[in-house]
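lol so apparently i was supposed to do this last week
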Amino acid sequence: MSRVWLVLYLATWVLHFVLVSYVLVGSGYALGQSLRGRDDDPLAARIRDLLPFMLGCGITAGVAPLLFLQLLHQERFYTANLLLGPRWGAVVPALIVGFYALYLQKAATTPRWRRLALAAATGCFLFVAWSWTELHLVMRDTPSWVAMYAAGERFYGQSGVLPRLLLWLGVMPVLFAGLAAWWSRGAERQRLAVVAFVGHVIAGVAVAWLSARGSSVDPVARGWLYLLIAAVVIELVGWGLVLRRPDGPGLTIVTGAATAAMLGLAIVRESPRLALVTARPAALEASGVWVFAITAVFAVAAIAWVVKTIRD
Amino acid sequence: MTSYPVNEFGPLMKGLVIGGVGILHVFLAQFAIGGGVLLFAMERRAQRGDADARRFVDGYFKILVLVSFVLGALTGVAMWFTTIQVGARTIGLMIDEFHWLWATEWVWFSLEVVAGYAFYRFGPTLSDRARIRLLGLYAVSSWMSLFWINGILSWQLTPGRWLEGAGMWAGFFNPSFFPSLLFRTAVALTLAGLVSCVIINTMDLDRARKQALISRAAKFATPIALMPLLALWFLAVIPADSRAWLLGGSMPMLMFVGVAAGASTLIGGYVIVGLVVKRLYINAATALLLLALAFGATAAGEFVREGARKPYTVRGVLYSTSITPAEVAGLRARGAVVDDPYPLRDQHRYPNDQLVRGAKVFRSLCDACHTMAGANGVQHLVATWTDDQLRLNIAKLQRTKGFMPPFAGNAEDVEAIVQLLKWERARAPAIWPMTTPPAQVQTWLDEAGIHPAPPLEAP
Ligand code: HEM
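anyway here it is w/ protoporphyrin IX containing FE bound
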């Protein structure tokens, strides 16, 4: 059953990540446009309108990997939570502030307020992304736990956290652009393609930084790494097509390739932890799985119905 | 046995930390659940031609989304993080046992979010049929999240036949499942009714029309009349020792029960006599006051629910100290803290190794419910005790008070805590002698045994 957990963990984490990418980069994009005096940019306006909803979905989507993580790596996850302590506790207040800031920027009547609200939101979400990255690394670093506790140290070695965070800050614009492009046309799509290119450059720098620090991909995940690389290449080609013919097939190629790339990325990201998954008594694992399965099928149908209803 | 690092919360007891977040979360979540049902009913009225009801529905929904989706969802996430801070092993056990039901709860919650946002954004432009169905979906899914989480939470106090190996479903549909489900549903409706009264007051209507809406909304608060019955049912199914503790065994508990009952009676009296029978008008200030009372009642009620579990977090399975009953014998033999890899953060404060040990023992065995000198501070509780009184009462911890677990350490550990308490009482002098435990301490430990005290587990 722990395989099922793993698959659900990976799938829901990817979903979570795509949504919060939209939120973090979308807030940053809208802020940038506002600072440049481009408050009339229709793309930014649409993004601003959608941000609270996307954050609601992103947080809800985050609860699912949170659940499965507690099955796969219970002791590590709890220990990292406890070690970071009050510093970790700041994540929820940051999210609350960020959430209301997103409503505030929608209601704002002056550019000044809008910029303030967007800046606050972007800052909060950056903080949250940084915190999750740090937590992830603390979880994996068992040998450092006791010393970290003894010293009352609430920050974990930033030399490892920062390049990893930079990698996410490179991947996120790509996902944001891929999602936002579906609600855009023409020149807007071209602008999003530029955002995606910038994301790739940032991610490239982060990968170089990580390898210079001696990070490498676990041999078990080599195949997935090749998939990831191939998918990214195709995706870049897709963005190139979008630049030349924004409303042509480029975006479809980008979407397909980015989905494959996220699959590869999620597994490569997970590979160092695979050997650490905690074994559990088999009897515990299955009870109630059918209730979950039936509910999930019903929910998918219901959500499809909701989408259809609001489209009509 | 897994040892987790322990965080100190200063003079605040850990229970208070989680209690604070928990109360806010429960209050908001119940408001959201009741709101779903109330809006569904109001929408039906609106569709029979009541234009005010329709304006009310759209206005109320905005508040529901702003307050309960944002704060409700995020205090839910905060609940995870705070429960981990307070009792990682407890939440781990709950996840291990009920993860698929928890995942089911998450699916319902996601559905609630989707239906809620869809109504929030598109409600005003949708057809009547679509509106009522969307609200119906919203109401059902929010109540279903309560349904699933309620089974998991009530299991902690009354695991019932699950303890005899009857399986997960026996644990889920445990003896307090239905009383607490109905109780929470009634509270949810009452809260929604009271919030409505506040919102109706802010609407731009003349008094007669507001009055008409208020009489409708107030009907939703009437389930509060069932609360005494549901509370009695709940009291009847919980373990005898918990009941005894709530109803007099502990003064603070009795007071909280009193506060919850008193506040509910006041709200119930006002709602039933004033609003429903006499059809009085209620202004925003009074409605807010009733809501504040309801918040107080929720707070007291949650406090009672948390407190009633002591000395366990999961009845019969895990003590509040994150130690299982089966582990106590081993810890008696080996000592309480040999497996704990985490040193003290303030080790330099203590003049000798025995006091360091005492502080570690305190951290593992007492810190879950006590502080040294703050909330429920042991210093205050033992201020007048002599040395042997300290040794006896700590060695026989579960007999000192039935809601404390048996002491899960050896005679050296008892002595180390006793010295620590005396040293703190003496205002932490720089020099302190080491002692060895008198032989009697072992005798007391043996007499107390490793099980909770009768009448907890009377044969
Ligand atoms: C805007 C808000 C958020 C942002 C920007 C964000 C960002 C991230 C990032 C960058 C990671 C990857 C960490 C890494 O692998 O180094 C991550 C992981 C994760 N996030 Fe979020 N997150 C947000 C909110 C949330 C919330 C509210 C939850 C839970 C309810 C959540 C649950 C998770 C989980 C469970 C993981 C996986 C951690 C692991 O496996 O180690 N996130 N998030």
